[in-house]
């Protein structure tokens, strides 16, 4: 897809999006309007959020039958994934063509990830602990600082409300996959209310070979590569008086997974995620809410390949965040003042070692305006890093509601990605002089939602400069390594159009999304690795009393495995079927058959993906 074609497609599709719903824009004013938190760091109805955003509800997660967070995200608009084998192996998530380290992942407001790699440990995230997920597309550095260039994904764990209740689920599927989970939760009423939730889960699978025949003799091993994951999460909250609340949330997940490191090697990785946060939220005045939050996130990555040549290793990241956020309501407007301090520490037992620390002080201000049919926002932020100095970002957005159902938006924002510890300090690769990548994103969009039909179209143009890439030979005269180095040398353009829609026809629902994009390294004039120019997803379901049946069709165009675009990863199409049956208000059963045609495809060269898989589960939940 050339640049000219993509712009023509954008204009044509946006015109169609305006024309199609306008004829029945006044059909109803009772729109389904979920509340999202991630876009502007405070609760807003989706109809007032100017960023492109979506939510994945707890019902969506239960119906998906997904075995991992990565499998769930693979079906969402604007998202592509890559994985080196089965659910327990290393994975990457690309938002709007942005690299995996150009996105931020939050768990209950706590930022997670490895400071050496710059990415979240997707495989260790437990799907069983998740209540819902919010995805916000586009740059959000003014809200969250470094690395929010492509978007932000926030995961919310299960919390308690209402009377005490217990829920549990168990399932079995292909590759001897077993899953169990349970939760107890509840809340008391009144001003001195107390809420609580405790959830735990365990997954285990015999798996399948991570690598495929054709891989190098160094990595290929035909054995099965299974995984064992267990997790516990919880939240407690106490309202001391009206408008004054304290609380805590935590997540602890442990993953032991096998992977391929050559014939005869029983290679295993041990991953741990340990997050905890405490907060106090106080409404000091009727229009002023202040929140002080302290959070710690630990990402522990160990390799127990004692038989392999590199032996054992351990790399741990500890992130500490202290945030003070003040929201001042001015009529329907909101003024937000934010101050934050983030500390990153890395310890390593590997050879060569990558150890050290850095901190960032942040100050931000934003204003969100609502005036009848007009919506607007403006924000600015300054980050002062001990590693790379000061960096300023800003954004501005405007929206206009033609009707209660139809809205147009336009925005412009800047962002940046901080170099990882590897890109700065890894011996023979990193350079301490490397600077942040910089992004400038402009986009326009349309959104229609009358409670029955939904349609959105968003065109974006995200220009990235100072792109850090592996450059051989290294241009820096002080570099002493044998091979290439990480260096700020390239430019990239992430340009595309995302169209999504859904429609209810009584008991029959249909939904679809398609991404037409051109994620390109402009310096080399090559398509970015493992990202397609076209990918899409279609789904339909039908409810007949207690029974719901559905089908999904996932599509992706060809991708390239290497930066030179000489090794092709073929396009693919997957068809999935599922059915749920609600025996009574408390009991339900799910059956799911993924990739029914047994399509052989690759998300990474010579790494296997699941063939035809089934899963059956039963769920109990007190109402």
From TrEMBL:
Residue ranges of every copy of the TonB-dependent receptor-like beta-barrel domain listed in the record: 185-596
UniProt-listed Pfam families: Plug, TonB_dep_Rec_b-barrel
A Gene Ontology BP annotation from the UniProt entry: monoatomic ion transport
Residues spanning the signal sequence: 1-25
Chief subcellular location: membrane
Domain TonB-dependent receptor plug, residue spans: 47-152
UniProt keyword terms in alphabetical order: Cell outer membrane, Ion transport, Membrane, Receptor, Signal, TonB box, Transmembrane, Transmembrane beta strand, Transport
Its membrane topology: Multi-pass membrane protein
GO terms for cellular component: cell outer membrane
Compartments reported by the entry: Cell outer membrane
Family per record: Belongs to the TonB-dependent receptor family.
Name the UniProt record assigns to this protein: Vitamin B12 transporter
């Amino acid at each position: 897809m050339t640049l000219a074609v993509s712009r023509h497609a954008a204009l044509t599709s946006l015109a169609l999006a305006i024309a199609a719903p306008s004829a029945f824009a006044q059909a109803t004013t009772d729109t389904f309007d979920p509340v999202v938190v991630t876009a502007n760091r405070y609760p807003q109805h989706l109809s007032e959020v100017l960023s492109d955003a979506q939510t994945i509800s707890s019902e969506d997660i239960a119906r998906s039958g997904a075995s991992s967070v990565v499998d769930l995200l693979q079906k969402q608009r604007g998202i592509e994934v890559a994985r080196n084998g089965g659910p327990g192996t290393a994975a990457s998530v690309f938002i709007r063509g942005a690299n995996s380290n150009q996105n931020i992942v939050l768990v209950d407001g706590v930022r997670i990830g490895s400071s050496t790699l710059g990415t979240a440990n997707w495989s260790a995230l437990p799907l069983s602990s998740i209540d819902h997920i919010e995805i916000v597309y586009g740059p959000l550095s003014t809200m969250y600082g470094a690395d929010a260039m492509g978007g932000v994904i926030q995961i919310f764990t299960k919390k308690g409300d209402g009377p005490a209740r217990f829920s549990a689920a168990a399932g079995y599927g292909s590759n001897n996959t077993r899953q169990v989970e349970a939760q107890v939760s509840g809340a008391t009423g009144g001003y001195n209310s107390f809420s609580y939730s405790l959830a735990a889960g365990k997954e285990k699978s015999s798996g399948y070979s991570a690598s495929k025949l054709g891989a190098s003799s160094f990595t290929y091993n035909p054995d099965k590569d299974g995984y064992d994951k267990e997790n516990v999460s919880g939240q407690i909250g106490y309202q001391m008086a009206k408008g004054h609340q304290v609380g805590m949330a935590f997540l602890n997940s442990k993953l032991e997974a096998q992977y391929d490191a050559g014939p005869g090697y029983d290679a295993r990785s041990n991953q741990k995620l340990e997050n905890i946060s405490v907060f106090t939220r106080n409404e000091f005045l009727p229009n002023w809410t202040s929140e002080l939050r302290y959070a710690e996130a630990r990402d522990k990555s160990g390799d127990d390949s004692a038989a392999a040549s590199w032996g054992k290793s351990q790399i741990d990241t500890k992130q500490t965040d202290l945030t003070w956020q003040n929201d001042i309501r001015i009529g329907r407007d909101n003024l937000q003042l934010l101050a934050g301090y983030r500390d990153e520490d890395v310890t390593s037992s590997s050879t060569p070692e990558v150890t050290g620390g850095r901190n960032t002080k942040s100050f931000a201000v934003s204003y969100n305006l609502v005036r009848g049919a007009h919506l607007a926002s403006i924000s600015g932020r300054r980050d002062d890093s001990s590693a790379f100095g000061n960096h300023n970002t800003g954004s501005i957005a405007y929206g206009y509601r033609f009707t209660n159902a139809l809205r147009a938006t336009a925005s412009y924002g800047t962002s940046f990605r901080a170099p990882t510890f590897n890109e700065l300090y890894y011996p023979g690769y990193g350079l301490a002089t490397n600077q942040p990548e910089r992004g400038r994103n402009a986009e326009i969009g349309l959104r229609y939602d009358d409670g029955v039909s939904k349609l959105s179209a968003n065109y974006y143009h995200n220009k990235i400069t100072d792109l850090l890439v592996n450059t051989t030979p290294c241009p820096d005269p002080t570099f002493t390594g044998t091979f290439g180095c990480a260096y700020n040398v390239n430019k990239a353009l992430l340009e595309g159009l995302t169209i999504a829609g859904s429609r209810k026809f009584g008991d029959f629902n249909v939904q679809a999304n398609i991404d037409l994009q051109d994620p390109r390294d402009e310096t080399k004039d090559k398509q970015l690795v493992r990202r397609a120019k076209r990918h899409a997803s279609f789904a339909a379901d039908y409810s007949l009393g207690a029974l719901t049946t559905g089908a999904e069709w996932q599509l992706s165009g060809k991708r390239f495995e290497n930066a030179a675009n000489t090794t092709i990863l073929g396009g693919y199409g997957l068809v999935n079927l599922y059915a749920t049956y609600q025996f009574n208000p408390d009991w339900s059963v799910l059956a799911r058959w993924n990739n029914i045609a047994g399509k052989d495809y690759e998300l990474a060269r010579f790494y296997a993906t699941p063939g035809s898989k089934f899963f059956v589960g039963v769920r109990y939940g007190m109402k």
